[in-house]
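Reply to dn_fold:

You asked what the input looked like. This is it:
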Amino acid sequence: MLSNADLKAWLHRKLPQRDKLLLILASFDNPCEIRDIKARAKDAGFSITKRWNPSATLRKTNGLAIKTSKGWEITDAGKQHLRDLGIFKISPAALQVAIDFRAALSKIKDENTRAFVEEAIKCYEAELYRSAIVMSWLAAIDVLHNHVFAKHLKDFNTQAKKVNTKWKDAKSTDDLGRMKEVEFLDRIACLSIIGKNTKTELKNCLDRRNGCGHPNSLQIGANTAAHHIEVLLLNVFKKF
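and this is what came back:
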């Protein structure tokens, strides 16, 4: 959750002993022992003196940290406590994406789209990056469906039939959802609703969404999610 550089900066601020110990725990990816906590603090230029009793302090955190058979670890409640203190894993640039995303939310009139965007923002801020990628894509495709339905439906149906003679005219946004999303992007690119390069970037977002939407070993971090959301912000939410 916390980089070593951020840990160093926060440990030297005026904070209660409990919060400093939680900070150190948040810098580990796996459970750790007290000796590991002391060593990590020392690496950050902070000394845990003999007057401290880390184990006793952590036991009194009311579930912010727990001791398992593998060692001490910070809980989800503990991570939220650190967020409440203003501590974030994401970089300032990535954090700005969340701020911009919230600004876009205020301009979205469609209730369904607003719900998708709001959930995507909450997932991103909670560091649920795979979920944020999935939800932000759902919001973006909803925006594109609404735009096509409102302004290009006749031309879209005509173009769709040229490619697939079995296509039945879409008469609602739900009908547009019958078409595979990758094909939908091709069709709206042919109509110059989006450009060739935009289509390429949106297809990359779709591939990322597909990777995040199914159980697999794919790892996603804050900056990858931020890039994904930024592409959608600039090319969908702020454009249509």
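Strands lie at 65-68, 71-74.
Hope that clears it up.
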